Amino acid sequence: MSNDAGVAVAVVGAGSWGTAVAGLAATNVDTTLWARRDELATAINDTHENAAYLPGARLPERLTSTSSLELALTGREVVVMGVPSHGFRAVLESARPHIRPDAAVVSLSKGVEQATLLRMTEVIADVLVDHDPGRIGVLSGPNLAKEIAAGQPAATVVAFTDEAVCRMVQDAFMTPAFRVYTNPDVIGCEIAGALKNVVALGVGMAHGMGFGDNAKAALITRGLAELARLGVVLGGDPLTFAGLAGMGDLIATCSSPQSRNRSVGVALGEGRSLDDIVAEMNMVAEGVKSTGAVLELARRHDVELPVAAFVGRVLYEGAKPADHVGELMGRAAKPELEGMRDA
Questions:
Q1: Is 196 a catalytic residue?
Q2: What is the CATH number of the domain that holds 228?
Q3: What is the per-residue DSSP string for 188-217?
């Protein structure tokens, strides 16, 4: 499949997922990948591999990389922000002078800004103050970077409120092995992406404590209810949470050993300290950063998130996962659909 219809793409951020997305786009359109470090950009151009973050994955030879935001962004119709939530604003502010006023700006980040509680598309709108809101969106789904870079079949959702922009971005990333659906629900897709990382931490803890599939299935299912409750209150479409950006991404992140959030949870469940776990990682587990922001969002909107609250106590209060299982299990009995009908 090729779609050289005059669209050029810039991907900002050469982590595993940013690199995989750049590789997808480069099979269709002119694509540039921005890497923070000059030596990484040079290595990608010379070897057609990102050995630092996506080792073993062959990248298209037509994909070029640069450490210059100006070179990466100038004239690009689609700008993809593949930067973690905690560094998203700073990089975008540096990129702002080079982004076309009519560019479609796509977030890959599945987090919430800690200081402001803004979703990443809200951060984009805050930094690019004159940008058309319909041209700000998100790409989200059950997308493990290694599998996609290996060409395995996968699907995702691209969400913009402007239907024409949504279709343009869909065309840029659709390949024979990567199926892209459109959805106008930007809010729902973003909230699902942020909260599923929190749930994955909890499921990982359950695995690390030696619990079986029944416990993990219960956490995933009740976690989905939490995604939907918060997402709907914030303006998301209930159906989004049953789709790829909701249930699909939740299953992949909670089930796969490739998931950084699940892996952190497993280590916590085994009794390791968060500081030691994070010190060994070369990529961010978004849930570690965004759990607090998600919980504060829920508090402000009076939404109950028991699984997320359990994760928060372990991350930020030094609680031991095993010490709080009884508390989670001992909550008052209630009908399953209570709190779900509006979601």
A1: yes
A2: 1.10.1040.10
A3: HHHHHHHHHHHHHHHHHHHHHTT--HHHHH
